[in-house]
Amino acid sequence: MADFKTELGKVTLKNPVMTASGTFGYGYEYAELYPLDKLGAVVVKGISLDPVSGNPMPRHAEITSGVINAVGLQNPGVEEFINGEKYLPFLRKSNAAAVINIWGKTINEYVEVAEILNEQNGITALEINISCPNIKEGGIAFGTDLKMANKVVSEIRKVTTLPLVTKLSPNVTRIADFAKTVVDAGSDMISLINTLTGMVIDIETRKPVLANKIGGVSGPAVKPVAVKLVHEVYNAVDVPIIGMGGIQNGSDAIEFMLAGADAVAVGTAVFSDPYAPLKVIEEIGQYLDRHNIKSVKDIVGRLESV
Amino acid sequence: MLTENAEIISNTKLKDEYYKVTFRASDIVSENILAGHFVHVKISGLEEKILRRPFSVFNVVKSDVLEIVYKVVGAGTKHFSSLEPGVKCNILGPLGNPYTYPVNSEIPVLVAGGYGSAAMYLIAKNSCNPGILLIGARNSKELILIEEYRQLGFKIKIATDDGSSGHKGLVTDLMEKYCKNQYKIYGCGPNPMMYTMVRMLNSRSVAGELSLDHAMCCGVGGCYTCVVKVKDGRGGWKYSRTCKEGPVFKSSEIYI
User: Which of A116, A131, A279, B104 has the fewest Cβ atoms within 10 Å of its own Cβ atom?
Assistant: First the structure.
């Protein structure tokens, strides 16, 4: 049995498989199916300073081998997240490593959320969402502008000692530049990819299917894009990388790890199979055993040249 | 809530585009399924369609048989209707917030549109008193499950858009005289019909329980793609998840 221990800088996880923010609620929704501490980490849906009601319906559509969504970061706000029994207190009791995804409409809002969470026990890391395509302010406005990306991360860095993960947008020309600038600003890790922006049209009504007109595409359809971007970031910076984008099984996860991801996240696949993250862990183990590899970290970045 | 690879025992056309599929699903059935619960089905053999499809439970037979009545509305349900006995589908369930059954002093009035009669059958089966089914459809060809309700002693009142059977008009036109205390009103049907019911019930201060229908991704409350507006208790509204806080809501909670 291979060693699954995964070291991401100061953070040690029991295995390299996490959930992806926005697909796994706050964890409690899935806890009836399996103990959350079987996962490397639970990454919760994005938390903002104030409660947010999100976008009008329809918020999603199924596409060939994927989903497009524009949920719009609906969330209960940071105070309720800290105090509401089913949110952070539940995660603490679950003993799962908890990564809290945060976002704001302004830099001040990001900083305030980070400051409030810095005082809380039981948080493994903060994931800074600068890449949500579904809200006008905040989110992707920070993730597609190099100066803003640097600024938001460096301001958050000043107020928290928690490990910081910055989640990058794939909707940029040179993702390596964004990776470098957020690492310069103090990000301890990088996660990618967030969703690719897209649009679906109903040809009978000639209207966009999503009320928000555009949304973010996820699922197996985006996997090759994600693997390539993870590899570009791996070649650009020297911090741990959490890779995601269409991972459904162990083979998909291994692709990301060979491309340079130290850990992976399983997102859209839980809609098809809520047990997908556990299946990915098991199948990574089978791959390692089959290749007689002792530790999961020994495959990270081990891509051979053509 | 659990998952099970359930085998199709039969999958036959009821009439028009409506089908009934019967699964052997002893694990799911052991979970105490109530009227209004739904199951999330991964339709086998559709690899490029990654989402499950939510269906209300129509009926539970013995300790291991689960029945669903569905309408072919798109590529997923079209393929579903082609699956033969022996094929297995992964089912997640039971899910959602169910109906509450009528107490002894209450006569249930079930207001059904389209395949809404499927989702309320377990209310009829578990009611102390036989009640009344008000059922509406576009035309007489789309009226389903009437005989099943009749066998439980339910009175049937029909409305069709084209007048091919019963009252010509909307099923909600038949509801007025049941907006009284001795009745307990339940609804399931297309969302515009549900909102008509909300307006009628709320303006008469009559309670009702309505099941709202939405496409969804996860089915368990994790993704927030299936939300509806409910009252927030402060004169405004908030979004609630059809899959978690619903699909059954009190009519007094639904915000219009």
Answer: B104
* Residue B86, token pair as written in the block: 């022996």
Closest by alpha carbon to A160, among A185, A184, A189, A126? Answer: A126
Within a 13 Å sphere around the CA of A261, how many CA atoms are in the beta-carbon half? 25
Q: Which residues of B touch A270 (CB under 8 A)?
A: 218, 222
Chain A partners within 8 Å of B51 (Cβ) = 62, 67, 271-272
Averaged pLDDT for residues A203-217: 97
- Cα B190 off chain centre by: 10
Q: Give how far B112 is from chain A: nearest CA, Å.
A: 24
Q: What token pair was written down for B107?
A: 């006569």
CATH fold of A6-55+72-196+218-299 reads TIM Barrel (3.20.20)
pTM: 0.95
Return the closest-CA partner of residue A56 out of A142, A134, A169, A138. Answer: A134
Residue B121, phi then psi, degrees to nearest 5: -60, -40
Cβ neighbour number for residue A235 with a 10 Å cutoff: 12
Question: Would the CB atoms of B217 and A64 count as touching at under 8 Å?
Answer: no
Q: Total structural domains in chain B?
A: 2
The mean pLDDT value for B22-32 works out to: 96
Task: Indicate whether A140 pLDDT > 90.
Answer: no
CA–CA distance from B68 to each of B8, B59, B89 (Å)? 11, 7, 13
Domain definitions of chain A by residue range: 6-55+72-196+218-299
Tell me what ipTM this predicted complex has: 0.94
Write the pLDDT tens digit of every residue in A162-209. 999 999 999 999 999 999 999 999 999 999 999 999 999 999 999 999
pLDDT score, position A138? 63
